[in-house]
Amino acid sequence: MAQILLVDDNEPLLELTGRVLRRAGHQVSLATNGRDALNLVQDKTFDLVITDLVMPEKEGIETILELRRKFPALRIIAMSGGGLADPETNLKLARHLGAVHTLAKPFSSEEFLAAVASVLS
After folding, report:
1. Which fold has domain 3-120?
2. Distance, CA of 26 to CA of 105 (rounded, Å)
3. Range scoring the smallest mean pLDDT among 12-16, 27-31, 89-93, 114-118
């Protein structure tokens, strides 16, 4: 069982992916933007952060950069449906900046759990 922080401004997707992770036996904390996520990481230890890239308040790329600077060993999965840019462009940048795995939206529950298992193993 891992402690996972899930970050996405799409609240229905956030709730759904949170349920998928809980059913798989993980402890899950939720945040709707990068600023709130960074506040949570200050107060609690996480094994994994899964973050969307296009969000209000603090974008996922900014969040990844700050997490890498403050918590270099923290594992990060980035996910994106695109926004103004092609999702692959955003995901490639996220991987370059420290995400250990990326997911293009939409993805299946199976793909999501396989990515989480891969990163946690």
Report:
1. Rossmann fold (3.40.50)
2. 22
3. 89-93
